[in-house]
Amino acid sequence: MKNRKMKFTALALAAACMMSFSACGSSIPENTVNSLADLDAGGKKIGVQTGTTGDLYSTDEYEAKKINTVERYNKGADAVQSLKQGKIDCVIIDTEPAKVFVEKNTDLKILDEPFADEEYAMSIDKSNTALKEEINAALTELKEDGTLDSIKKNYVGTDEEKGKTPYKSPEDVDTSKGKLIMATNAEFPPYEYYEDNKIVGIDADMAQAVADKLGRKLEIQDMAFDSIIAAVTAGKVDIGVAGMTVTEDRLQNVDFTDSYATSKQVIIVRAK
């Protein structure tokens, strides 16, 4: 009788498992996004960080056309966590942060097919043409002398290059021309993130190198990504530097310096 009861219990449990995965452990659905064609087919939930290019592109391409649903998060890390929990089907985000997230989460992967190409530049108020010209001149020098390339390799180079060429201000740097105040959102590794209570990353080092060229002391203010352009236009900061892509929408409110980096929007999905 006991064996029969145990057998019945096992069968009942198996049936319950088939009806509801959540009753038996995992309720995370299998990945159903394996290409852009799967997104174009519709019916998916896309996670993005609020105000980012991934948000803008997803809104235009999918939400406005009622093809897919767009779920917005204050941090890219929150979108990634929601993907892991099965609440959304994919995350659209810049390629370098995507690599960082996938390195830390082996249950995720990046699709080979990129979502979009883009260029990063510093946002600056439309009236601040003199500072824009100064920064563009500094960027040209940093590109030509290899400093900008060295900064990038220090964060996203090969295993032999990473961490080998941290940017250091010249010992005799002159900061007598005042401050260069930069707004960023330090949730975007490897471009900007906290390390030992300090904001570091490609953008932070690049802005420091520009400030050194301009003879100014760099001050970095951390804020929500979708507050950066408002801070620039209000004159609270001089520049917005946060892996910010030049888009037609943003150009309606701010100007941009020359580009200092190219990137791609990619799609993160669950590995299985």
Describe the structure.
This protein is α/β, with parallel strands linked by helices. Helix content is 38%, strand content 21%. The chain has 10 helices and 13 strands. α7 packs antiparallel against α8. The longest helix is centred in the first third of the chain and has 18 residues, at 2-19. The model is unreliable at 1-24 (pLDDT under 50).
Dominant shape: globular
How would you sum up the major sheet?
Answer: 6 strands, mixed
The ordered H/E elements are: HHEHEHEHEEEHHEEEHEHEHEE
Radius of gyration: 23 Å
Average pLDDT confidence is 90
Q: What is the distance, rounded to the nearest whole angstrom, between the alpha carbons of the first and last residues?
A: 41 Å
Q: Helix/strand-derived class?
A: alpha/beta
User: Helix proportion of residues, in percent?
Assistant: 25-40%
Count the E strands.
13
Please, how many helices?
10
Low-pLDDT windows of residues? 1-24
β content, as a range? 15-25%
